[in-house]
Automatic annotation (TrEMBL):
<dbReference type="GO" id="GO:0019748">
    <property type="term" value="P:secondary metabolic process"/>
</dbReference>
<dbReference type="GO" id="GO:0016787">
    <property type="term" value="F:hydrolase activity"/>
</dbReference>
<dbReference type="Pfam" id="PF04909">
    <property type="entry name" value="Amidohydro_2"/>
</dbReference>
<dbReference type="InterPro" id="IPR032466">
    <property type="entry name" value="Metal_Hydrolase"/>
</dbReference>
<dbReference type="GO" id="GO:0016831">
    <property type="term" value="F:carboxy-lyase activity"/>
</dbReference>
<keyword id="KW-0456">Lyase</keyword>
<dbReference type="InterPro" id="IPR006680">
    <property type="entry name" value="Amidohydro-rel"/>
</dbReference>
<dbReference type="GO" id="GO:0005737">
    <property type="term" value="C:cytoplasm"/>
</dbReference>
<feature type="domain" description="Amidohydrolase-related">
    <location>
        <begin position="100"/>
        <end position="352"/>
    </location>
</feature>
<protein>
    <recommendedName>
        <fullName>Amidohydrolase-related domain-containing protein</fullName>
    </recommendedName>
</protein>
<dbReference type="InterPro" id="IPR032465">
    <property type="entry name" value="ACMSD"/>
</dbReference>
Length: 354
């Protein structure tokens, strides 16, 4: 069975930050205590206050032997965890959607995309990079995404919501059309403490409480916008992954959306046209799972197994390396066909991998 990690992360280390500080000293500098970068006057990560993110010194796994400091080290870690291919989302690069100066935002996104392409290039396609874009500036975002496709990046990261707009806003239609034209899937990924819009987490200042709710709340917000806002009706070729919230919430939320579509769908003008499960069957909606989720067989029974992908969250603190794949490979309550789909076949289709 080929195992593809559909949502790992790269730990960018100092090289990316140093290059960014050299290019844009007026926008980015280290905080005096070393616990964050100060970008446009904001701490990244912001580890205090409402919606607090993970303190920088606690964000990465401390598992014995882990080596995330180079591509070669990551490949060794992948081998130890039985992973053949890792799709790498950003860590620091998750800040890109929140940058406010348009020129700096586009420049940083281009720097990151070139950096991750160079990082992955020597690995024989075992490590594949994800693009970041200045999504608040749609025209620039389209240009940066086109360049990222040429660099060989396999998807584009977008946040669960923009600062003042949801993901169904008409301003984004040109961006979605370009993503379909480029055959570029989109990965929706939140990040507490990275100054993305806060959904519910502003009620908590403890990072662990924030972490409990931030990812599922973010993904429910994003899914509501994209389904009920008609994004998939206007762009039926769009593939979107809702990431890092597990899969247990999906049957509940699809059913909740179904009820609202059935009873009051006509209240959304020029939007909602089909039952939510139809977008799942059409290949618009994808998600990742943690292989140990006890509800996984139930999700497969209710919604099928064609949209679920394995994710490790390597090398972050809440991942299970070096046993991220253990449950996927050994649990007896899913079929071998389902195991192969979740393990790699679905991710191969979503990211259009060889």
């Amino acid at each position: 069975m080929r195992i593809i990690d559909a949502d790992g992360h790269v730990a960018e280390g100092p090289s990316l930050a140093v290059e960014a500080m050299q290019r844009w000293p007026q926008h980015i500098r280290p905080r005096a205590d070393g616990r964050a970068l100060v970008i446009e006057g904001r701490n990244y990560p912001e580890a205090d206050g409402p919606g607090a993110g993970c303190p920088r010194e606690h964000g990465l796994s401390t598992a014995a032997g882990i080596n995330y400091e180079s591509a070669e080290g990551v490949l060794g870690d992948a081998d130890r965890d039985h992973i053949d291919t890792m799709v790498l989302y950003p860590s620091l690069g998750l800040c890109a959607p929140s940058l406010e100066d348009p020129e700096f935002a586009a420049g940083f996104a281009r720097l990151y995309n070139q950096w991750i392409a160079d990082y992955c290039r020597p690995t024989g396609d075992r490590l594949r990079g994800i693009a970041v874009i200045p999504i608040e500036q749609v025209d620039a975002a389209i240009d940066v995404m086109r360049e990222a496709k040429d660099l060989g990046l396999v998807a584009t990261h977008i946040p669960p919501a923009l600062k003042t707009r949801n993901l169904d806003h008409p301003d984004l239609d040109r961006f979605y059309a370009a993503a379909v034209e480029l055959d570029m899937p989109l990965g929706i990924h939140g990040a507490p403490g990275m100054h993305l819009p806060k959904v519910g987490v502003d009620r908590f200042t403890n990072y662990i409480q924030v972490h409990c709710i931030s990812f599922p709340f973010d993904q429910m917000t994003a899914m509501t916008a994209m389904i009920s806002g008609g994004v998939f009706d206007r762009h039926p070729g769009l593939r979107v992954a809702f990431l890092e919230a597990g899969v247990g919430w999906v049957p509940f939320f699809i059913d909740r959306l179904h009820e609202h579509f059935e009873k009051r769908g006509d209240w959304i003008e020029n939007g909602w046209q089909r039952d939510p499960q139809e977008y799942l069957a059409a290949g618009n909606i994808w998600t990742t799972c943690e292989p140990e989720e006890p509800i996984l067989p139930g999700v497969v029974d209710v919604l099928g197994d064609d949209f679920i992908m394995f994710a490790s969250d390597y090398p972050h603190w809440d991942g299970e390396w070096p046993e991220s794949t253990k449950h996927l490979r050994t649990r007896p309550d899913i079929s071998e066909v389902t195991r192969a789909k979740i393990g790699g076949e679905n991710a191969k289709r979503f990211y259009a991998l060889n």
